[in-house]
Amino acid sequence: STSLGLLLVTRGWEAIDNSQIYIKGAIYTPREEILSAMKLNLPKAILEINPKQIEENIHRELSHQAVSVNRRLAPLSIQVTIVERTPKAFALRRGKNGQEKGMIDEKGYWIPIFKSTQNKPPSLDLIIDGWSQQNQKLISIILRNEGRIGSQLKRIIFKPNGSIVLQTADF
């Protein structure tokens, strides 16, 4: 107990930098993107870092399924564990700078594609054209019921007038 207190007092106010941040579980998200999403001004004392705030920042910026952030005193570091969403389809949406490309999971959540990623996006046969957050629940319902359509879905198109077009391998 005394040694833990001593460790906290002596190491807790030491500053850390990016090299002391360890990231596990990121397959499609580059380290630089995660570090940027953390919104930390480093170097900073480890006890001044709020793990819950970092988790919220990463989740909001990158839309991961789960994020866990822990401070470590020995060795002095931050451990970030990420559970990424599993891509189900490629997706297109209108963004500030025109059309954006991404992926979505089975619940319709947007997954960004990063140009700097080491791992290439998976091979996916389905494209969602016109993704928007308001269509997310509907996308999820369509994907859950894909087997009932009778033919493999190839493209789901959300038109500006509100209509939906389902293109399948057979039709």
Question: Helicity range of the residues?
Answer: 10-25%
Gap between N and C termini: 69 Å
Instruction: Report the count of strand segments.
Output: 11
- Low-confidence stretches are none
User: What Rg do the Cα atoms give?
Assistant: 21 Å
The shape is elongated
The number of helical runs is 4
List the helices and strands and how they pair.
Blueprint: H1 2-11, E1 15-16, E2 21-24, H2 31-38, E3 44-45, H3 51-62, E4 66-73, E5 76-83, E6 89-95, E7 98-104, E8 110-112, E9 127-129, H4 136-144, E10 153-158, E11 164-168
Overview of the molecule:
This protein has 171 residues and is α/β, with parallel strands linked by helices. Helices cover 23% and strands 32% of the residues. It contains 4 helices and 11 strands. It has helices at residues 2-11, 31-38, 51-62, 136-144; strands spanning 15-16, 21-24, 44-45, 66-73, 76-83, 89-95, 98-104, 110-112, 127-129, 153-158, 164-168. The protein has a 6-stranded mixed sheet with strand order 8-7-6-9-10-11, with no helix packed on it. A 3-stranded mixed sheet has the order 2-5-4. The chain has a two-stranded antiparallel sheet with strand order 1-3. β4 (66-73) and β5 (76-83) form a beta hairpin. α2 (31-38) crosses α3. The model has no long low-confidence stretch (mean pLDDT 88).
